[in-house]
Amino acid sequence: MRICIAAENGMVCQHFGHCPEFAIFEVEEGGIKEIRSMPNPGHAPGTLPPILKEWGVTHVISGGMGMRAVELFQSMGIDVVTGAEGGLEEAARALASGQLSPQANICDHSGGDHNCDH
């Protein structure tokens, strides 16, 4: 399992597209094998999903994400978990153990309004 988490200061960032960096976790048999980070290449809609797919990412975790981005990831076979909070490693371990599931999407882009707290 390869997990990409929107990251900010060691915590799950509340808006995927605007996070300063992404943490990529390689998880095998419930344990974290490797952690890499990559700076956010910029908030350009539709750019990141194909890159992460090419890298073998299977899951994305964030506090919130626009519905178009969620749909793009899902169309590429990448599972999206929104509503996450807390530390990066805790989120990766919780997902790997089946204890993290999608919650309310903190970032609500519905109706054309951008109501995120970022």
How many domains? The number is 1
General shape: globular
Structure annotation, total helices? 3
Biggest sheet architecture: 6 strands, mixed
Rg over C-alpha atoms, rounded to the nearest angstrom? 13 Å
Output the CATH homologous superfamily. Answer: Dinitrogenase iron-molybdenum cofactor biosynthesis domain
Overall mean pLDDT stands at 86
Going by helix content, strand content and strand pairing, the class is alpha/beta
CATH topology: Nucleotidyltransferase, domain 5
Determine and state the CATH class: Alpha Beta
Return residue spans where pLDDT drops below 50 for at least 5 consecutive residues. Answer: 109-118
Instruction: Please report the total strand number as a whole number.
Output: 6
The helix/strand order is: EEEEHEHEH
β-strand percent reads 25-35%
Euclidean distance between termini CA atoms: 29 Å
Helix content: 10-25%
Indicate the CATH architecture: 2-Layer Sandwich
